[in-house]
Every structure is written in structure tokens, then in C-alpha cells.
Write a structure and sequence with these properties.
Two copies of one chain form a homodimer.
Chain A: E1 3-11, H1 28-40, E2 47-48, E3 57-67, H2 76-84, E4 88-95, E5 108-116, E6 130-131, H3 138-146, E7 150-153, E8 169-180, E9 185-192, H4 199-211, H5 219-226, E10 241-247
Parallel strand pairs in A: 3-10, 5-6
Antiparallel strand pairs in A: 1-3, 1-4, 2-3, 5-9, 5-10, 7-8, 8-9
Helix pairs in contact in A: 1-2, 3-4
Chain lengths: 248, 248
């Protein structure tokens, strides 16, 4: 009997060349497929929800795979985790109906981007935060964030090099800027029905440029209206970004 | 004029073969000496307070070094941090009187050991916590900790292979067991006038064995009284250990 299984996966992106399988490089998809192939005795290919870049982390990545094998679904995490190494871990495996697909069946995703806003940063954060040394004006960032929420053509927040998409219209459900660690940390939490290539990192970079006063507070609105990448801000680095959750 | 400078140093132990300089291996002392030699134009050797093992972290390591060079003391951190790489950082540099020595002048140290007590551990903690899957009885651990505080001959908590010492009598000023992260994390905070080789890790391992019920609650007291390493518990792994502070 062919089974269809949905996994929830957590990984530290530091040691991976991103999600997507690439010959000769250690990737999250590659390590996962190798682990699943070993425990099932079959050649497994997984479909992941989000093709995270090198250095980007995941707490709630999802992937589906199909096969006809003996291992009970609830034993898959412990068996695979045992052989995959410590920086990637399956946190849940469930049976899903035929045709359910980690990416195509998803209704949206939530990301978190963590900024460390201080001239001093603990060494332990170097792979897990984006350090912005000068003080950010979170009030300006929050005002600009309001212009991003909703349904817009977001081609201004899209990097070259991604998979071509039919449309660059997306809906951002929510975008919050949270002050944490006595104001030294600012976390951006963003959810939407879909994200273009590097979209969260470009939104973050634009909000940082606005928060530093390098760009006017309506820069995000202007960039969206003009549909022009050059009017948006810089691309924030990968290590501050976490894929938190996929909605079905 | 010969200057004597005291540094405070923070490092992530994951990428180092411990503190102590070793030919051909990346160590914290080695990287620090190379950085200081480059910024001063002299061959610098530092004396560190604690020779932390591979994988052990430091938030408050201290080291002294001497030389006759031009760079102002308060510029040393920024200049050296710029070239040492992201996993080690000088957080402070101050001038100290002739004869002041990071190790010999110290009156004691404080360490923190972090245990993650759950069958599930985020991948991000693999190099920064000791995972103990079965539930620990913190009440038993706290009762045993009371037997460790004070002045005792601690040869039972000493691993072979350290520097020979004149005496194995030490004074533990304080030993607290803190419940954190809704009880999923237990942190041991210990301060004393000095610590034998692997002493904090063996004390932690003994308290874990007591907390799991593998050893009786008076096991630590018995081991101290007998002066016998075989009566103490296992050596907890390095990655949970942090050198927090040195007292002068």
C-alpha cells in the first residue's frame, strides 16, 4: 500500500547549503532523504514546503513523501533522527490522504526574523541573529509595516534568481515587530499566503533602513506602488531568519 | 613602558580545541595571541585564568598579557575582535598594576552548567546544553548539593590528566540548582575559590545520577568522605559548561 506521510522538520541552517538537494553539498533535503531512504530501504524523495537558503533556520519546515514500507509512521522521527546528525530533526510524522502535498496544499506560512540591535552582541548569536549596531526606531518600522500588510503586488520585494511565478501578488496576513530582551532584540513575525524569493529578508532590510532613518517611513509603500526592487531596502542576511510554521 | 593588561573574553567553545595553545590546533588562547600579536606588532603571550576543555564556553574568561606597544587599552577589544573571527570576542580590556596575574591573582570563579531535561531538545541546543531525557528529581539534587558546599578535600571530583596540584582541598562558596524554561531546563550555578580538573562536570554528573535515582542522595557526601573518584558519578559532557566570572 502506498503511503503519503507529512513531516515536520526542525534544522539549524548554519551547517547546510540550504534546503534544496544539490550534488556534493550537504543540504537539509539531502540529509533528510538519505536518512529516510536508509530507514525505509527505499529511494525516498521528499517535497518540502519552503526552499530555505543557506544559513536560514527552520522550526516548522514541512515535507511530504510517498512509499510502500513497513516502519510505523510514529516511529519515523526517532529512527531517522538517530542517523541524521544533531542539526536536523524530524519533530512529527503523520499519515495524510493521497494527493496531499507539503507545498501545494499549504495555505500559508509564518516566518520570524531576529535582529540584535546593539553594538555588542554575544558570540553565541553570530549564526542566529542579524546584528544592527545603530539604534532602530521601532515606531517608524511599525508604521511602515502597516503598509505591507494586505494583498499587494510584491515584486519590489523579490530577488532575482528564484523560481518564476505566475503572479507576484501575495497576501500578508500579519506583520508584527516585537521588542524583546529589554529592547536589544527586535523580532519581525510575518505570516502570509506565500512569499517570493528572499521576500522576508528584503522586507526586513527595508524596515531596518527605515528604522535607521536611511529611508523615509513611506519607502515600503512607495516601493510596492512602483513595483521597483531598487526602491526597497537591502536584503537582510540569512542567519536571522526562521521558518516557523506552515498553514494547511 | 611595559604595560600589564587584563582582558575579559567571551567564546563559543564549539569551534575550539579548548583554551590552551596547541600546535596546529585552533584554540582560544592561540587565536587570541595571534590577534593581539597582529594589533600590537609584538609576539604576545597571554596567561588565562581557566584552561577550559574543548567544547566548554566562556562568558567571562580572563587573561593578562604584557608588552610595550602604542595601541590605547580601550581600543584593544575593537581592534582584536575585528580580526579574530566571530566565535571569540574581547569584551573588556583594562590596565592593571605590575605583577597582577589573571590566574594567580584570582580569588575564585563562577561556572554555570546547563541541563536540558526533556526527551525532546531543539537542534539549536546541541552544542550548548546537556540533554538528560529522563525526569530529574531536583529536590534530591538540591539536598545532595548541600553536602558539596563548603571546604572539603574534593579529590573524588577530580579527573586524571590535569595539572598536579599541591592540595585537593577547595572551598565551594555556593551551589544553586535553578529551574528554568518551565522546568525543562536545570542550571547548576557554582562558585568557589578554585576547581580541580573536570570538577564541575563530575559534580554535575554526580547530581544528575542522584536526580535520576541511579545513586543515593548521600552519594556526593560519601564520595567526598572516601576521597574516591569511583564513588562519584559520571562526567557530564563539555558543551553544557560556561565559565561565567572570575573573582579578584
Amino acid at each position: 500500500m502506498n503511503r503519503n506521510i507529512l513531516l515536520t522538520i526542525e534544522y539549524d541552517g548554519t551547517g547546510f547549503h540550504g534546503w534544496q538537494r544539490q550534488p556534493g553539498l550537504r543540504t537539509a533535503q539531502g540529509v533528510l532523504e538519505e536518512g529516510l531512504s536508509r530507514i525505509t530501504g527505499q529511494q525516498i524523495q521528499v517535497d518540502g514546503t519552503s526552499r530555505t537558503d543557506a544559513g536560514v533556520h527552520a522550526l516548522g519546515q514541512r515535507a511530504t513523501f510517498q512509499g510502500d514500507f513497513g516502519i510505523p509512521t510514529d516511529r519515523i522521527p526517532i529512527a531517522a533522527n538517530h542517523i541524521m546528525g544533531g542539526d536536523i530533526r524530524i519533530t512529527e510524522a503523520v499519515d495524510v490522504p493521497d494527493g496531499f502535498h507539503a507545498r501545494f496544499s499549504s495555505r500559508g506560512k509564518k516566518y520570524r526574523y531576529v535582529i540584535w540591535n546593539s553594538s555588542e552582541m554575544p558570540v553565541f548569536y553570530r549564526n542566529y541573529r542579524y546584528q544592527v549596531e545603530k539604534p532602530l526606531d521601532i515606531g517608524r518600522m511599525r508604521r511602515a509595516a502597516e503598509d505591507i500588510v494586505g494583498t499587494h503586488d510584491f515584486q519590489c520585494f523579490q530577488a532575482a534568481g528564484g523560481t518564476p511565478r505566475e503572479t507576484t501578488v501575495r497576501t500578508i496576513y500579519d506583520l508584527q515587530l516585537l521588542e524583546e530582551v529589554q529592547g536589544r532584540q527586535i523580532a519581525l513575525e510575518i505570516s502570509g499566503d506565500g512569499f517570493l524569493y528572499n521576500m522576508v529578508r528584503i522586507i526586513t532590510g527595508t524596515l531596518v533602513d527605515i528604522g535607521l532613518g536611511k529611508m523615509p517611513v513611506d519607502a515600503a509603500a512607495n516601493a510596492i506602488q512602483a513595483g521597483d526592487r531598487r526602491l526597497a531596502g537591502h536584503t537582510a542576511p540569512p542567519q536571522g531568519l526562521y521558518l516557523m510554521e506552515v498553514y494547511y
